[in-house]
Amino acid sequence: MEKENKKIIMTVALPSGRLFQSIINLLKKSGYFGLIDYDEKTDRRLVFYNREETFRFIITKPKDNPTYVECGVADIGIAGKDVLLEDKKNVYELLDLGLGACSIVLAATQPKEKVRKGMEQRLPLKIATKYPNITRNYCLKKGIHGEIITLYGSVELAPQVGLADIIVDLVSTGKTLRQNNLRVIDEITSISARLITNRISYKTKHRQVHEAVQVLKKIVNQSDYGSGKS
Amino acid sequence: MFKFLNPDGEIIVLRPDMTTPIARIAATKLGKKSQNLHKFYYLNHVFRKVANNTEDQQEFHQAGIELLGINNRLADAEVIAVAIQALINAGLQKFYIDIGSASFFNSLMDQLPLIPEYKKELRKTIMNKDFVLLEKLMLQYDMSRQDQETILQLPHLRGDESVLEEAEQTFKKNNITASLALQEVKEVYQYLKMYGFERYIIIDLGIIRNFDYYSGIVFEGYTGYMGSPICGGGRYDYLCQKFGQDIPSTGVAIGIEKLGRVLSQENKTDKQSLDRRKYLIRYRKDLIKLAFKLAEKLRKLDNIVELELEIEHSEEQTVQYALDKKIRYLIDFQSSDLNQLLRYDLETKQKEKVCYGERE
């Protein structure tokens, strides 16, 4: 707030966690956001500025990112498609950044055929997930009779100890699934990080938002983009 | 929407807006007079499902007006002007109204050589401004380069009057409906200029409102303090038709809770002055009857008057209370002579003698 008198072009909400460094690299590479000094290892600031003090950056929990953007305290943000699908915030998706590409899948310890047959016969299934809304929509679409158990992490544990029959979870390499004897039954949707904005910033800072989209799009479309992916 | 079953098994909903019930009443209850010009206003609750974890409540208040029975640009402009004046009167200092046209957007959609399901999907995607999905859909539907460009250009048709000229150049040759819609926006803008309101107005041809009943000029108002519009409206010429009568109509609704939040945000940054209609009376215990009388007298003169209820308060505490409540004047009642009272102006810090006694 002490720098409010400076001319801030936009406030950008960045998600903490595993994508943070690749997002910082992307912003640096674009050149649009000025000189960014932020060392993830030592820095504990949640609000910082570029060296020119023209952009303000705030660091949010990944799941909170659309909330900061939706209510207008940040002009643009970066959120996983999983968060956007689950929480249905009123934000605009501007660009697929391609970072953190993975899938949301339905997985089970039992063989695929057996689970499929159970689903067809409308047998009640207990489904453990971090994504109750995505799971509910999927069940409605597929006519699955499911009881949803919401967990906050390590969802792979649930079917092994009998808490649930199947799980709906995020998968990137599939290693965690395999080590926990889980097989993919169905892919629900693919996921990646998206650049988002809110209805009002899209109006009041239209030019700046558009410029940011254009410069980032240029990098995302480069053929060597993604080699530095996390 | 919140939907229920009534005992007959019919679906009923809690009203998501006031415009639809007003259109229904106008079309079904006004009889022969339904074709006359009618003006309605309301301040009422509406109910909408909103996302969790936001400040927005599912039940909220809307204040609005509807102007029925006339289809011209003067009526469109008047409704917008009333909305602007209402926001000004509410004390809002910085806000904008974006004006666009539903028929402009509709005409662009009509021209696309796509099957209805695709158009519906495309419309929804453009409305949600989901550009990631939009690009995928345009590829999937195998749309021509030119059509893709037209759609992608939409959000950028935004700014001052010159935007209209720019759009006119693009559409005058191949889309008459779009061209007429642009003329309408231009005319409304001219009227709003004459009202002296152009500084509040921005042309935005990318506006697509959430309700699908809009048919002509549409608009939405917003401030920098909130991520969604505080007011919105437009022309809906075919809504009454659904209830059996053809009545052209236009209207606006202001979100009261949102307006309240925006006002308190503005007040945080601008120091608000004390209310000169507000009085607080402090009195000696044995003079309470006279204090009651004086309070009544001041209220009749259209003031807001409070009596100090916590009589054990020191003068300092009373002054603090007054400042908290934005009360400007403090009258200290220490003598029974109504012509010998001191009025303390908390804004100027001046004490002056005032006469509230009976005139001879």
Quick summary:
The complex is a heterodimer of chains A (230) and B (360). Chain A has 230 residues and is α/β, with parallel strands linked by helices.
Task: Tell me, rounded to a whole number, the average pLDDT of chain B.
Answer: 88
Helical/strand content category of chain A:
alpha/beta
General form of chain A? elongated
Oligomeric grouping of the chains: heterodimer
Q: Flag low-confidence runs of chain B.
A: none
At the fourth CATH level, what is the homologous superfamily of the largest domain in chain B?
Bira Bifunctional Protein, Domain 2
Main β-sheet description of chain B: 8 strands, mixed
Q: How many beta strands in the DSSP annotation of chain A?
A: 11
- Terminal residue distance of chain A: 33 Å
CATH-defined fold name of the largest domain in chain B: BirA Bifunctional Protein, domain 2
- What's the gyration radius of chain A in Å? 20 Å
Based on Cα principal axes, name the global outline of chain B: elongated
Interface with most residues: A-B, 25 and 26 residues
Low-confidence stretches of chain A: none
CATH H-tier superfamily of the largest domain in chain A: Periplasmic binding protein-like II
Residue share in helix of chain B:
25-40%
Number of helices of chain B: 11
Order of the strands making up the biggest sheet of chain B? 3-4-10-9-8-5-7-6
List the domain count of chain B as a whole number. 2
Task: Characterise the protein shown here.
The complex is a heterodimer of chains A (230) and B (360). The relative contact order of chain A is 0.20. Chain A starts with 9 loop residues before the first strand and ends in a 10-residue tail after the last helix. Chain A has helices at residues 20-30, 65-70, 81-87, 112-120, 132-142, 157-160, 175-179, 199-204, 206-220; strands at residues 10-15, 47-49, 55-60, 76-80, 92-96, 102-108, 125-129, 146-150, 166-171, 183-191, 193-197. With 230 residues, chain A is an alpha/beta fold. In chain A, strands 2-3-1-4-11-5 form a six-stranded mixed β-sheet. A five-stranded mixed β-sheet of chain A has the order 8-7-9-6-10. Chain A folds into two domains: 10-101 and 192-228, Periplasmic binding protein-like II (D-Maltodextrin-Binding Protein, domain 2), CATH 3.40.190; 102-190, 3-Layer(aba) Sandwich (D-Maltodextrin-Binding Protein, domain 2). The longest helix of chain A is centred in the last third of the chain and has 15 residues, at 206-220. Chain A is built from nine helices and eleven strands. With 360 residues, chain B is an alpha+beta fold. Chain B has helices at residues 19-29, 73-89, 102-111, 116-127, 131-140, 145-153, 162-171, 176-194, 256-269, 288-300, 315-324; strands spanning 3-5, 11-13, 38-47, 59-68, 96-101, 158-159, 201-204, 217-222, 231-235, 249-255, 275-283, 304-307, 327-333, 341-345, 350-354. In chain B, the strands form three sheets. An eight-stranded mixed β-sheet of chain B has the order 3-4-10-9-8-5-7-6, sandwiched between helices. Chain B has a five-stranded mixed β-sheet with strand order 12-11-13-14-15, with helices on both faces. The longest helix of chain B has 19 residues, at 176-194.
